[in-house]
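User: Run a structure prediction on this.
Assistant: Running it now.
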Amino acid sequence: MPNATREAVIRFREETLPASDPSHGTPNAVVRRSLEFELPQGTARWEQTDYGHPGRFNPWDPRGIDARLQPKAAQLQALADEIVALLGAAPPA
């Protein structure tokens, strides 16, 4: 009988980009979060920043969702919000 192991991996990263960084150009530091779900059906990547209003996060922005996961995009976005809450980070605005 073949091995029936399945795996799901979640990667979360939060970084602070300095004021006037070439990636954003604003006079304030910008916090950027990235979240990646690796599931048996594929991979989904999301990004979130506080660009434009320091400390208040914009909604999650999809940065690549495999076709088989696209019907579950709303569930994945809700899960992203829950992961941020579990980590004690500020929620989106």
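The chain is about 15% helix and 35% strand.
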